[in-house]
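Team,

Forwarding the record for the chain on the shared tracking sheet. I've put the sequence and predicted structure together so nobody has to dig through attachments.
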Amino acid sequence: GNGFTISANNVHIFGFKVTGFGTGVRMSKNSSPYHTVYIGQVGKGNIFYNNAFGVGMYGEYSTAVIKGNEFFDDLANPFDNTVGIHLQSSNNIVGGINSGEGNHIHHLWRGLSYASSGNQNILVQRDSFWCNTTPVFNFAGATSTPNIIVANSGIISGTASANSVVEVFYQDTLGICTV
């Protein structure tokens, strides 16, 4: 089942620990008008722990602003087919430019997944991805996202679509990715 199933507009969800669900927060909207859900905010983020999907956005008219949250799996059994944020909708914001708006996404099978060729206008900024099997995943036919092939203190290499903006922040103090 789902922790929260959203069908209304302008819903704000913050300050919760959401654990043990199929999808922690799910929104599905396939007809006009657009509906937006705000998941987390600076200093009042949610903790999504041990869910199959932390957040799932589905439908042409679902939009999310996802800021200041933490997504992770059971640390005793990490990487067990869990996804932090699953986007099958457009016009989403994941993270942000201001302090505290970034999400912490770690110890998951997939940190962020794009599931549709219709995914457009998705902004991912200042989020921290670490210890994920695949930090960002594109399903076959999904909108192409930047693909970082090599990243370490000396080199960053990969591919991106024309006019993409890729921000890279390096920190080597997050620890080792084993439990």
